[in-house]
Amino acid sequence: MRKLFAASLFLVGTSVLAYAQISPFDMSGERPAGAPPVAPRLRLPAQPAQPAPAPVPVVPQTVAPQPVQPPAPAPAAPSVSAIPAAPAPATPSAPAQAQPQPAAPPAVRPVAAAPQTGDFRRYIVPFSELGLAGEYDRRSWSIYLTTEQAAAKARFTFTYQNAIVVAPEVSQLTVFINNRAIGQQQVGSPDSPSAVSFDVPPGLLQPGANLITFEANQRHRTDCNIDSTYELWSNIDPAGTYLSFAGRDAGQLSGTDAIRAIGVDSAGKTEFDLVVPAMEQPGTTKPLLRLAQGLSLLSGMPNQVFSFSAGVLPAGGPGKMAVLVGTAAELRPIFPSLPQGAESAPLAAFVTDPRNGSPVLLISGPSWQAVSTAIDTIVSPTDRAPEIRRDVLTTQRWTAPDAPLLFADTRIPLSQLGIRTVDFSGRRFRTGFNVAVPADFYANAYGEAKILLDAAYSSKVLPGSHIDIYVNGNIASTVPIATTNGGIFRQLPIRVTMRHFKPGLNSIAIEAVLMTEDDAACVPGATASQAPRFALFDTSEFHMPDFARVGQRPNLAAMAGTSYPYGRNPDPTPLFIDRTDADTLSAAATLLGQLAIMAGHPIAIETVASPGVIGDRNAIFIGSISQMPATVLTQVNVATASQASWRPVTDSQPTEIDNREALEQWRSRITGGALQGRIEAFREWLRRNFDITASSLQFVPNAEQVFTPSNATTLMIAQGKSPDGGGAWTVVTSPSAKDLREGLNALTAQMNWPQIAGHITTYSSRTGKIESVPVTRFDFVPTGGLSIANYRLIAANWLSTNILSYSFLLVVLSLLIGLATSRMLSRLGRSK
Which terminus of the chain has a smaller tally of CB atoms within 10 A, N or C? Predict the structure, then answer.
């Protein structure tokens, strides 16, 4: 009897699953000009939408097997309901989003249908935290909307909490969409988070990119000094900030819109869950990693992670997309409603998960060669030849606008960098913009950029006020305000040292510190004054001069900034993976997806099983430390003993003691810490005021020290030269495959990735700390376009870094000039 009941239940489930709709994956609308067309056989003909069948009651009773008839409308059984056939709204109520249904094979375990509210919700904050600090702050980024979402009636909701010292009567939070204010909220929620909603004006949203902007103007309740401005903040909760769209159409996603509009979850993350039954088979790694890079580029999100599994289709949710990859024979046990076309030709299409109505990207075919062809239909629109120069670094999904890439002498108005004209009535004004420089940037020791400032200040501003320029959080220039009675700056040149610039994205901030007599008195109501004190005009310009251009090896900052040198490889990059289990493959996909975004195109790879076949090419090695070839660790100056000694610290284990640091502490105690402290203070004074360090007072840089990771370290990225010195080898390793996956998920996050630098970078999951070992010796790598002028700039930067070499060369040249002059004068005139 149990067998008869199981057979009847199976027939009912499969008949319902037959209604799962399939939408074609058509890339034609997204292809650039000149790209080869997609083969017609890869597009499924559009099928008419079928009405959702009514729930079918499944009653556990003994019956003889009968042919299953189309279900008639009937009330569902209280405990079990059938799987909905037609796509349900992609997002149910908020609780249903936070707790997605557990994953299960569609044809085996029916799940209860969640109640539908008729609204589709899109989380929009691409960060785990969003804070607006100071008296003025402004953050902008873009989100991608489908045609259906842009046409639907929308409502914007955000949740915030502010510091208790913020004065609510004169402080506002303003929300802009596509540069149009849709609402303003008085800042007054210090005790607990408050949710605020605004209706989005019809016609304001558009298909594609939409600019979201938060602007804060905040004033202190009682204090009027500069220090009090650092106490002002308003935090936006990503889980309570979203766009809600009315109607079911906004949740219908298909084609590339489903990838570009994947968005984020309530924590600002984006996740692609790939189900690949044959992921450990030879020959599948290369197409799978190419697919991961294509998905990463199409979505363009800042905090992306990839997860591989070989079994059950995972549950969907906001910021998540399930991807089924494999041959028809491999996928049919997981997804029984597989289209029949997958057995005869390559297939790239979206199907509907019958459990929750979320879209599932299906990539299949009769063989893995056909699967690779289907993957190319998705990824090929993102391909770009490495030698084609791009003009911007794509950053708009987390900071808008895209940062322009500056290769030579360039002047850009700040209006093109997202700065707008602002009248400011407070005490400390701060705003910023982004620019990018190429991987072969080499001007950190002598170069100077300029900001040509258009600004004005009132007569109340006192001498002693100043305007500061910051580069990547480090102060680079200060201009004092020394006159009274106000003033207007017209193209005032402010020199900005480029010592803090790095390859890739660079953040530049302008800060005006304004002091007045009213602030010194700080009478009641002074903080509420709205009289403008300072104005910044968007006609100001940023001027980048010509700078030296030559690659350096090793240079992890260049890899993090622009994927150098792998993004420039005309040939496939060798990739060594110790094993293709789920954790290692997920880590590799997450890393390569991030490198693809930085490079602006997928990086072609070829998997290798041994470093012996790599030769002198650029290569990447990823895996656990115990499986890493010893010769590879030697090339990147990592101790081979780490393969046995590097083990993660558990909570019960004591933290490892650094013997070298302990020895130095004891030496300072015995020989007199006071003298040592004075010497260190003098060294710090030389570094701070004259940029003179111990490394700059050397004729020849010291050799790299062999590095041993501590047991508190979770992940290590190291870069060195290939055996013959012609390529760069990068090692990404951890004590275990699990640590590797979790470490890369954390390190590739937008807030952590820019901290990668030097020739070794480590990350600790216990402390969240990222540390770098600076490069002491590096090789120059010609990158093309070398000229006498460029050689002169390279020499100027190198001599500015190596002071003793410059001084020695100056003395030698002076002696040579003196000897030549003496010899020339001895031959002139009369001598007796």
Answer: C
